[in-house]
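Sanity check record (used in CI):
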Amino acid sequence: MMDIGAKREYAQNYLNKRFKNLPEKLYFVGFIIYSLVNYLRGTMFTQYLSSPLLYDFMKISSVFIVLKILLFDDWKLKDFIIFFLLGILIEFTCRISYDYDIYYYCLLVLGAKNIKFSRILKTYLVLISSALILTIVASQLGLVYNITFGRSGTPIVRYALGAVYPTDFAARVFYLMLFYAVFKKFKLNIPEYISLFALTVAMYVLTDTRLDTILMLLVIIIAIFYRPIIKFVSYISTRLMSFLIAAFVAFNILLAYFFVPSNPVFSIINKILSQRLVYGHLVFKRYNVPLLGQFIPQVGNGGLHKGPYNYFFVDSSFIRVLMMHGVWAFILTMTLIIFLSHKFISKKYIVLEIALLLVILSSVIDQHMWEISFNILFVGLFAKISDEYAVHKNDLRS
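Expected output for Polymerase:
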């Protein structure tokens, strides 16, 4: 009788003969299904789509990814065992926290082996930008709610444009701008600069999201000063960058943990961060830091509310992972980020390193780090990254 390895090799050869590029097709079917579901969960299309239905499609997407991993990916047996045990632990944590974003994202990270990152990036840009345009059109035609919000003490009206909340919409635009800049290697032409700046202004006027506006402006500024910035980042060692990233994340968590409302310095920082320190501090005050996760009931401003409600929502992705998924998931997240940073710097993928730093910066203030329809950078862990993202000598010349 043939052993498992021989049977697997026979199945690979048979399927490859019958279906061209089957591993890639399996991955992208799973990627597109899950990305769309993840996107739709953050829009008012949920008035038509129930949560159980969306979760069913998430499960369907995972079938394609798992098939690709089991049939075609050349991992060693010990690697399969490690990933399987890790998957059980992640699923257990997600089951406790009632948040499965990390679980499905990790499947896509693992399944990205031997898939070109450039193809994933192009698919993401086309898919999410198209979905965003359709959402805006649907909100203007009255097919989905275009929820409006006010800002306390001001006459400002904020539009969600089909998203569940204006900041979610603005964050979506920021991530699209960021990964479009990555696609262009931050080398933009004049019409692109004008378009991105106009888009940034429009987002600020329509959504009044100050922090995301700053992030969008940062993308444009980095593109303008591309050469000196990549030259500076290129000089930073992998160890120093790892330390700076860990220190920055730790500082932001400790800032929330030790927040004192009466302290004028804390008060200024909290105002700049739109009250995020208050709720970051409250979650530490109400709950212990778990090892393997816990369920934290939260009520955000997004979506429709049938009556009065008590707002309580943790925005910071890092605090959410720590408090909802536990210490081990936080360590996993930081290990992934630092490993990616090490990979990007050591292989001179400075464009991707800059994108990673902006994702970290964004994740301090928003909850979208582990949402594939926002941030796709984590798939770069195992995906094939070509030298087109590497810095060349010409790029370092002043």
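The longest helix spans residues 117-140. If this sentence no longer matches the regenerated tokens, the check is flagged for review.
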